[in-house]
Structures
1.
Amino acid sequence: MNKTLELTCSLIERASLTPDDAGCQQLLADRLEPLGFNTEWLPFGDTSNVIFTHGKAGDPAGPSLWFLGHTDVVPSGPLEDWTSPPFKAEIRNGFLYGRGTADMKGAVAAMVIAAEDLVREHPDHAGQVGILLTSDEEGDAGDGITKVADVLRQRGTAPQYCLVGEPSSHAHLGDIVRIGRRGSVNAFISAQGVQGHSAFPEALDNPIHRLAAFLNTLTTMEWDRGDENFPPTHCQVTNIHSGTGAENVTPGHAEVMINFRNSPATPAEEIKSKVEALLEKCGLQRYEVAWRISGHPFRSEPGALRAATVDAIRSELGIQPELNTGGGTSDGRFIAPLGTEVLELGLLNESIHKIDENTSVDDLNALSRVYHRIMTGLLTG
C-alpha cells in the first residue's frame, strides 16, 4: 500500500460529517510537526481550521505556496445503498471506496505526502510551503476559509500561490485545471396573492400564475455571453413551494428559490436589479426577495503557479490540461481576493457526493507526484 493510499484510508475512517473534523486535522498535525512544520489552529464556532507551514514567508529566494483543502464530508445517505460501509475504506478492482475519497480526503492525503517528501528531500528549501484545511467547506462555509481569509488579510500574510485540491478532473486525472470559478447568487422570493375557490377566478389573485410569467422570462433571457474562460451567466429554478393540498383551492402564497451562476460580465448587483425590475413588470406587487451571495466570480491571471502546474501535469501524466472555470464554488473564492494566484487541481469528480464514492488507487499516487513536482518547481528551482 503506497503512502498516499494509506493516509487516505485513515482519513476516510474518521466520519467527519461537516462541520465535525473527527480528528482528521490532528492526525495530520501528528505527522507534520515532527518534520518541522508549524501548526496554527484557527477555530471558529464548531469549525476546525488549521494552517501547517514549513519555511519562511516573504523569503526573497522563493515564494509562499499553500495547498487548500477540507476534511469535512457530506452525509453518506442510506447506509443500505452502499456496497461497503461509507466510513470503512475498501479497495475493489483498483478503486478505493468510501465517503470523501474524491471530495476531498484523497487530495488532502496527496498534498500531505507530497509536502512530507519535499521537506525530507529539501529541508532548507526556499520560500514557504503550507497546507490550509477547514472542516466547513461542505456546510454553509461561514466559519471556515472565509474567516481564515479575514485573518490573513488583517495580518498581510496571504500566500503568493494557492492550489486547491477540489476534484476538478473529468475523464482523466489532470485533464482539467480550474483557473477561476463562476459566482453563485441565490434569490428567495415570497409572493403574496389571494386564496380562493378555483371556480371563481374573478375573486382570486393566484401568485403561481404571476410567478409563472416571471420565471418564463427569467429563465429564457440572455444575461451575457461569457468570455474565453467563463460560460454565459445562467439561472436555474431550484425549488417552488405553494398550495393548500386541496384540488379546488388556489394558494394565497408561493415561494421560489433561484440560483444564478454568473460570469464577471454580470455581477451580483446587476442580477439583483434586473430580477426586481422583472418582478414589478410581471405584476408581482406584494412580494419579498431575500438574497444570498455564495461567492463572487474570480479568475487568476497566468502566473508562475499556472506554469508550474501545467508543466507538472505534462511531465507526470503526459497530457495537456484544459484550463477553465467550470464546476460549482470552492473555498478558492475566499483566497483569490487577497491577491493570491489560485488554481484548482484534484481527483476525478464523477462520484462525488454519490453512493459508493470512489477514486482510482493509481490516481492517488499520481496526484501526489504532480503536487510534489509543482512544489519542487516553485520552491527548489
2.
Amino acid sequence: MVGIAITTAALVILISAFNGIEKMVEQLYSEYDSNLTIRAVKGKTFDESTINLKAIEQQAAVQYVSKAIEEIVVIKHEQKWVNARMIGIEPAFLKMANMDRHMVDGYATLEENNQPMALIGAVLLDKLNGYIPQSVGYETVDVYFPRRNARVGNFSNPFNNQIIKIAGRVNFNKEVNQEAFIIPIELARAMLDYESDISAVFVNIKPGSNAEDVKSELQQLVGSKFIVKTHLEKNALIYQTSKSERFIVICILIFVFIMAAFNLVASLTMLFIEKKDNLKTMQSYGANEQFIFRIFFYEGLLIAGKGVLIGLILGYGICALQLFGHVIEMPNSGGEPFPVNLTWSDAFLVVFLVSLLSIMASFLPVKYLVRKHRDNL
C-alpha cells in the first residue's frame, strides 16, 4: 500500500509540474510571438503592397496587426560587441506582447520626444555591460547594420552605423533575452533603406477565437505566395520536446507503479496461503470458486484503493501547498515559484491509470491462485 501511495503521489506531482512548466513556456513564447505570423514562401522580404493588410485587420477575430522588419545586426557599447536580431515593429506590437508586464528596467516605449527608442533583451544588455540609469532614463548603443546592395571590397565598408537610445530592458524567454533588439519600424526602414519591403506581418487574435480557424481564413486571404503559422507551429520543437518528456516520465512512473504493485501481489498470495484452511471450511458450507475469488479480489481492491486514495491526497496536497504557498523556487529566477498547474483532465488520467493497474494487480494473481489451488479447495 505504501509503494502504491508514494507512486500515485509522484505521478500527480510530476504531471502537475510538467503542466506548470509547459504553461510557463507557452506563456513566455506565446506573448512575445504573435498568435499568427505571415511570411513569404520565398525570399527574406516582400513588398507590403502584395498583401491586403486592410482585409486582414477587418477580420472579425483579429485584434492587433503589426508589420515587421527583421535583420541581424552588430551592437557596440564601449568596448563590447555582440550580435543581435533587430526587429522593427509598429506600436501595436507592444500591446500584442504585453510588453509592460515583461519590463526589467526602463519602460515600454518606441518613441520619446519625437525620437525613436529601442527595447533590448535583458541578457543582451548585460553582455554589453550596459544599464539604464534612473537619472537619464536610457542607455545609448551603436548599431552596425548591412548596407543594402553594398559590394565588399578592400576599401569599402559593407556596414552603416546608427546611434540608438534604449528605453527599456525586457525579459521573455532565453532566445528573446539573448537576441532581441526592438526598434520602431520607421527607423528600421531608414536604416536598411527599405521603401515598402517588410519581413513579416504579426497578427494577434481576440480572446476565445480559434487560431487554426483564423489561420485558414488568413491563408485563403493572402494566397499561396505566403505562409501563415501559429505560434505553436513556430516553436513546434519546444512544445513537442515538452510533451515527449512528459510522456516518458508518465511511462516510467507507470512502470514503477507496476513494480510497487508486486507488493500487493505478494500480500494477496500470503493471505491466500494463510487462509487455505478457512477456505476449505467455507467450501464445505457451500462457497464456490467464484465466491472465494471475489473475497480476495475485493481485498486486493481495498488495499490498492487505500494506497491510491492516500497517494492522491498526498500528491494534490503537496501541489496545492506549492501553488498557494510557493514553497519551492525556480533556480536563478529571482524568487519565482516553481510552476504547478492542476487540471481535471490530468486528475481523471491519473485516477484511471492507477485504478486500472490496481484492478489488474488484484485480478490476475487472485485468478491464478484460485485456479492453481482449485483441487485443494
3.
Amino acid sequence: MAEWLYEEGIGEARAALIEHGRLVEALVERDGDAARAGAVMQGRLIATLIPRKRGIVRLLSGEEALLEPIPPKLAEGATVLVEILREAIAEEGRPKRAKARVAAPGIKPHPGPSLLQRIRATGVPVIPCPAHEEDRLEAHGWSELMEEAMRGEVGTEAAALRLYLTPAMLLIDVDGSLPPAQLGPKGAKLAAQTIRRMGLTGSVGIDLPTMNNRDERMIAAAQIDKYLPLPFERTAVNGFGFLQIIRRRERANLIELLRESPVATAALALLRRAERHGQGGPATMTAAPAVIDHLRQRAHWIDTLSRRRGGAVTLRADAALAISAGHVA
C-alpha cells in the first residue's frame, strides 16, 4: 500500500511517498521563476562555448541555460526552441545553469510539470494534507528528515552515514560500531534508503567498510539493488569497499535545495509551523533577524498566512535566536 501525502505550503509545496507506513521519498518544490525540467521554452543563443557542441541560451525569462549540442546552422543571436533537461542547481562557488537541448520539431512551448503533476503521473493515490487537519507529514518524520539533510548525517552509532557534496559527486561515508561483515550490508541498505528519501541523483559514491571477501561485498551490493528502485546503474563493491551509483539528474536534491539558503529554509519551516499553530487567529512569529528580514521582504507570504489563519500575523526579531530556532505564539 502506497500513497503520496501532498501539502500546498506557503512558499513551497511538499510531498512524501509513504509505503507500508514509512516515508520512503520526500520532494520539495519552492516557488520561483526558474525553468522546470520538462519545459519547452523560447531562447536566444548568446554565446558559443564549444562550436557545435555547447553554448549558452538566454530564455525569455532572462535565465541562462547550457545548450548541448548546438545545431550546425544556429548562429549566435538566433532564436531557438529548447527543452529543459535539468533545472539550475546551486553549487558552492559555481552554480550550475539549467541544461537544455533543441526541442523536437512540432513541439510547442509549455511549462515543465509541477510537483503535484509529477506525483499524480506516478499513478499512486495523492492525499491532500491541508493545515487544519492532522500533520500527517510530521507523523511520518518530515522534520527529522529535513534536519538529516541539513546536517548530512543519518543513522545511529551502530551504522551511520555522513554525506558530502562535491562538484564531482555526492559522497556517502559509512561508519559504525558493527563488525565490517555486518556494517557493510547495513550501511548499504541505509545508503540506498537515504538516496531515495533525499532524491540524491547524478553520481553518488558510497564508501563502505573494507570487507574480508567477495561474498561479503556481494551481499552488501545486493542491499542497494533491493532498496533503491530502478532506474540506476552501479559498479560492484571494490576491494576497498567503494561503489558508485549513477541516477538520472533532473533537479536539485533535498540537501542542495535546503542548503542553498539556510535563511530561506528556516523561514519556510517557520511558516509551516505558523500555519498549523493552535486553532487559527492572530499569531506572532519570532526568529533571528535574518529570518525575519527574509519574511518581511516577502509580504505576500505573510498575507497568505494571515488569510489562512484568519488573523493578523506579527513578526518579531530576536538576535539571541539561532537561524533555525524560530517559534510561533
